[in-house]
Amino acid sequence: MVREFSYRGEIFRATVHGRPGIEELFLIHMVDDEEGPEISLDRFEDPNNDPAQSLEDKLADLADELMQEHAVEPADPNAAFAWNEPKTGVNVHSGVQHHGLEA
From which domain of life does this come (predicted)? Predict the structure, then answer.
């Protein structure tokens, strides 16, 4: 799963692989629609992992860690975690290749 969320007034992109509670998490702080600092965690190998902790809570913890490591001052420190609407619009060609065939 790849999905964006907002937390503390900042935007993050999360890539999540694995089963609930023991996922691999990759988190990127989005800055002006550009990829910024990133952090990752393998919950399966984390000795402090609580598999019962929700994915949203774990991503918020990871976002807090990323912001602390990179001295990011959150835009709205009191803003809660919220998933963003997925971006589903994609431009795709028809698949037909046009060749300059001459008769």
Answer: Bacteria
| pLDDT tens-place string over residues 51-82 | 999 999 999 999 999 999 999 999 999 999 99
Give the global pTM: 0.81
Q: In the chain, what is the straight-line distance between the N-terminal and C-terminal CA atoms, in Å?
A: 49
Q: Residue 38 sits in which domain range?
A: 2-83
Please tell me the distance from the alpha carbon of residue 25 to that of residue 102, in angstroms, as a whole number: 53
